[in-house]
Design goal:
By secondary structure, the chain is of the alpha/beta class. It has helices at about 5-15, 20-40, 50-60, 75-110, 130-145, 175-180, 200-210, 225-235, 245-255, 255-265, 285-300, and strands at about 125, 150-155, 165-170, 190-195, 215-220, 240, 270-275, 285, 300-305, 310-315, 320, 325-330. The chain has eleven helices and twelve strands. Helix 1 (about 5-15) runs parallel beside helix 4 (about 75-110). It starts with a helix and ends in a 13-residue tail after the last strand.
Amino acid sequence: MSLWLLFRRWAAQNFHALSGRNLLLLVIGYTAISYALLSVVGESALIQSPTDFLYYLVVSASTVGYGDMSPTTVAGKWVVMLFVIPGGLGLFALAVGRVATVFIDYWKQGLLGRRKVSVENHILVLGWNEQRTLHLIKMLQHEEKGHRAIVLCVRPDIENPLPGEVEFVRAPSFTDSQAMARAGVDTASCIVIDNSEDDVTLSAALFCANQNPKAHILAYFNDESLSGLLKHHCPNVECIPSVAVEMLAKAAIDPGSSELHHELLSTHKGMTQYAVQYPATATPSTIAPLFNGFKQQYEAILIAIDTGNGVELNPPLNRDVPPGAKVFYIADERVEQIDWSKCT
């Protein structure tokens, strides 16, 4: 059996156990022995400078073989045939394989949610409800395209359902400090909590509010009583109650209401509801000029305001709108740049 086959068998058996340190020692040893052998057999042209020598080793090990440098003595040719090329090929294959393994492991860590995300000011989605979560993410992607990144954090043992589109983290629980740190809970600008178990939602919301009190936290509850409990402890958390029963009753009395609500909430179809802040530097106004300005300039309809005391739907035209108030409107698309001077 040739030395090359013996080396390949040894490499296959010990590749995974070969540490980076040992691989470096092998490369150094191979380089030193090659230099010594070529020097002994008189191949001065191959070792006349460190650059020429390393260039020749790399070209030989990678099987490129430009032919601009080659052994000229008989002994030199035997050294290259029996040691330089076989040893170089083996080490080159080991090095390339090790680098590839590192990149594959890194990719798998991200796919399995074991890697820390490297984003800030992102939207963190906690919970996995299969198609409902995918629909939620698709709507967020439509709204946040080119703006905030989306990070999905789940408890089930699954892989990233949208690789390349969202960052992904798996956590044993949504109160696990290390796992939540990997999801960037302390740097998220918005945290959306949607779980099938309300108790998990409650504990996750309390944990997130403690870790990141500046984030906009939204929590979806099936049981409205728990949302009241959360609001008592975390007044800044926005609780989203289940409205399925209410929509069912409304549609029974006013046919078509469910379709209307669906269109107002959908980011892909028809008119949608949006919110914007009336600039803090703007002069105080009233609803009337804002209502007319939104309609004339942007084909949008102003439907509500929030001056800090809760949302006021369909406010009267003479209602004051102070700087800093939140304005809600309906439009075909979000108005990215509002010229407030034309709306007041």
